[in-house]
Amino acid sequence: QPFMRAIMEAQFPAPGRTINIKTFLPGSGTEVMELCRPSDSRLEHVDFECLFSCLSLRLLLRVFSSLLLERRVIFTADKLSTLSQCCHAVVALLYPFVWQHTYIPVLPSAMLDIVCTPTPFIVGLLSSSLTQLNELPLEEVRSEGQLDDEDSILPSKLQSALENVLERRRELANDRGADSINTGHLSTVVSEAFVRFFVELVGHYPLFITAEREDGYSSSSSSSPASCAFQREGFRKAIPSKTARRFLEVFMETQMFGWFIQERELHRQALRGLFEVRVQEYLDSINENEHRRVNRFLKGLGNRMKFLSKR
């Protein structure tokens, strides 16, 4: 009780910061504990390796594409633990975007008719319910071998680079030296790969959120005390790759992207998560040589892995 009381009275730490808790323990006197809040807690309960063990890399990227297009995805497995772990892991891959539709990692058989809805969803279903599922009037259900544009909608160069990194995930995770104590480094490698993928696609968004000031002028400076507006066409056309522009044309119509931009229009200065840090690094690298606009995916991620291995 004294320990819990001391925690409740302490100021809640910012991400990455620590607090010192003094508590009296009978028999040992006063003890000081240092508690650290994780700088990025998204991956605390995410098991990406479970996802890779159940799906091939190519199929995983097809599922990833389906989610980016906000389609209907049903996961099936024999075990509840596998089902929930895979659903949580695939949703974590969408960061910094957030799934805006129905999400039920383990769907009870009594609620199976939910999969008949025409709106997007992610649901997990035990294999024992597949017979009952097949009897329902499902709309546009396709199996693994029937996936269509999910295999071609991602920009080809970015997809190839992403596949390359994911195939080498164990090598990158182990490339940290003998003093490594971070057991979650494999998850970090996977997460950083997908974050970098999104940085290359939408990392230039701050340049196209302008502040409408009272004098009628626009400014891209975040210090301007005014409402912000997103310049959609300028943002899309700023990408030189035709395949990336084609993808953005579809992706920008999703609720995920709409929520992403809305949050940054309303809370532009308050958002400082991992993605914003990587975006700032990306923009700084562009500013160093703004006349060169090349895809630095593998080089950038490789440098990031080297940095992580030295931490």
TrEMBL record:
<keyword id="KW-0344">Guanine-nucleotide releasing factor</keyword>
<dbReference type="InterPro" id="IPR005112">
    <property type="entry name" value="dDENN_dom"/>
</dbReference>
<dbReference type="GO" id="GO:0005085">
    <property type="term" value="F:guanyl-nucleotide exchange factor activity"/>
</dbReference>
<protein>
    <recommendedName>
        <fullName>UDENN domain-containing protein</fullName>
    </recommendedName>
</protein>
<dbReference type="Pfam" id="PF03455">
    <property type="entry name" value="dDENN"/>
</dbReference>
<dbReference type="GO" id="GO:0042147">
    <property type="term" value="P:retrograde transport, endosome to Golgi"/>
</dbReference>
<dbReference type="InterPro" id="IPR037516">
    <property type="entry name" value="Tripartite_DENN"/>
</dbReference>
<feature type="domain" description="UDENN">
    <location>
        <begin position="1"/>
        <end position="271"/>
    </location>
</feature>
<dbReference type="GO" id="GO:0005829">
    <property type="term" value="C:cytosol"/>
</dbReference>
<dbReference type="InterPro" id="IPR043153">
    <property type="entry name" value="DENN_C"/>
</dbReference>
<dbReference type="InterPro" id="IPR001194">
    <property type="entry name" value="cDENN_dom"/>
</dbReference>
<dbReference type="Pfam" id="PF02141">
    <property type="entry name" value="DENN"/>
</dbReference>
<dbReference type="GO" id="GO:0015629">
    <property type="term" value="C:actin cytoskeleton"/>
</dbReference>
<dbReference type="InterPro" id="IPR051942">
    <property type="entry name" value="DENN_domain_containing_2"/>
</dbReference>
